[in-house]
Design brief:
Pfam families: Phasin
Low-confidence stretches: none
Helix content: over 70%
Protein name: Poly(3-hydroxyalkanoate) granule-associated protein PhaI
Shape: rod-shaped
Keywords: Coiled coil
Structural class: mainly alpha
InterPro entries: PhaF_PhaI (IPR008769)
Organism: Pseudomonas tructae
Number of helices: 2
């Protein structure tokens, strides 16, 4: 019986040793997983940063290209607007002159003197006034 007790005791110690060995392996596997996750996590983070920088660089290039295209289009529209504005001003000047001519013609037909007629008459009156003043001084 002592033999059976010793055998059971040895069996229990062997199993306890196996459990301790297995527990140690689990502990070491956990440490290894933690270490690998830390290392791979850092490497993975570096890869993500590099990928993000690449996307940002491409995005900036695309944005710059879009802005350049938009600015070019704005410059083109400004140039065209300036050209159209000049043409409109020329046409408005022509319309204004035509209107002035027609109004002056209509006023002349009904007997109302033009600005030129009034200025000419005013000049003649000035001459006559000056002549009368000379004659009056001589007398």
């Amino acid at each position: 019986m002592a033999n059976i007790i010793l055998k059971k005791k040895d069996d229990a110690q062997r199993r306890l040793g196996e459990v301790r060995g297995y527990a140690r392996k689990i502990w070491l596997a956990g440490l290894g997983a933690y270490t690998r996750a830390g290392q791979e996590g850092a490497d993975y983070l570096k890869e993500l940063v590099k990928a993000g920088e690449s996307v940002e660089k491409r995005g900036k290039k695309r944005l710059d290209a879009e802005l350049d295209a938009a600015n070019s289009e704005i410059d083109s529209v400004k140039s065209e607007l300036t050209s159209v504005r000049g043409k409109v001003e020329v046409q408005l000047d022509k319309i204004e002159k035509a209107f002035d001519t027609r109004v002056a013609s209509a006023l002349n037909r009904i007997g109302i003197p033009s600005k030129h007629d009034v200025e000419a008459l005013s000049a003649k009156l000035d001459e006559l006034t000056a002549l009368l003043e000379r004659v009056a001084r001589k007398q």
